[in-house]
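Lab notebook, design round three. We kept the backbone fixed and only want residue identities now. Task for the bench partner: fill in a sequence for the structure below.
Input structure tokens:
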């Protein structure tokens, strides 16, 4: 949408989540949670460019770690259902749910499916963990909206969007839901609990 984050150069500016580029970090957190995982799955939407970026990034990270990765298509409700049904036959030990607005609109369904299939999963926003997801790592939606609000104020006071660099959110949150861990029969390593910004009990 803009030629440069520092110099948008048009009538568009805003803030970026960076969430699509955090797949490798989420993969590392899953491996710490389930160190003996033979197969970790990535649920992504390959029909969108952001989904392809995540697939490439996580696949490369998995290759570097020697981790077997299974990419599952989550591009529709039926495909999401089929993806979860494939977890057990494919011997998947943990699931990384990709960053996609389509998934955000199905947050409760994704969390319920992970619970139903008893699969440890990591998501992009704390709202997933609050809804009962096991773990999330990503930027703060609250911080994003605060930054956007500041920009709206500046523009209303006369500043030009073209002169306002795209803001990059720098607040990252690791949230762990211990209730969900207990329900899944998972012990959260102490290192992860100490590193967490929030632990839901």
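Proposed sequence:
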């Amino acid at each position: 949408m803009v030629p440069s984050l520092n110099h948008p150069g048009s009538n568009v500016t805003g803030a970026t989540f960076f969430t699509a580029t955090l797949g490798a970090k989420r993969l590392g957190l899953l491996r710490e949670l389930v160190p003996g995982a033979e197969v970790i799955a990535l649920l992504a939407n390959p029909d969108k460019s952001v989904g392809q970026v995540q697939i490439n990034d996580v696949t490369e990270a998995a290759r570097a770690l020697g981790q077997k990765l299974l990419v599952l298509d989550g591009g529709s409700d039926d495909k999401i259902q089929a993806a979860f049904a494939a977890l057990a036959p494919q011997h998947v030990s943990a699931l990384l749910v990709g960053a996609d607005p389509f998934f955000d609109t199905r947050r409760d369904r994704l969390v319920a499916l992970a619970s139903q299939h008893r699969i440890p999963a990591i998501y992009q926003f704390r709202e997933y963990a609050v809804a009962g997801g096991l773990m999330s790592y990503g930027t703060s939606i609250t911080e994003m909206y605060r930054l956007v609000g500041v920009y709206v104020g500046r523009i209303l006071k006369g500043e030009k969007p073209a002169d306002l660099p795209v803001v990059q959110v720098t607040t990252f949150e690791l949230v762990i839901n211990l209730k969900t861990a207990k329900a899944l029969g998972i012990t959260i390593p102490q290192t992860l609990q100490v590193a967490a910004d929030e632990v839901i009990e």
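Keep this in mind before ordering anything: The beta strands are 15-16, 39-44, 68-73, 92-97, 121-123, 135-139, 167-168, 172-177, 198-200.
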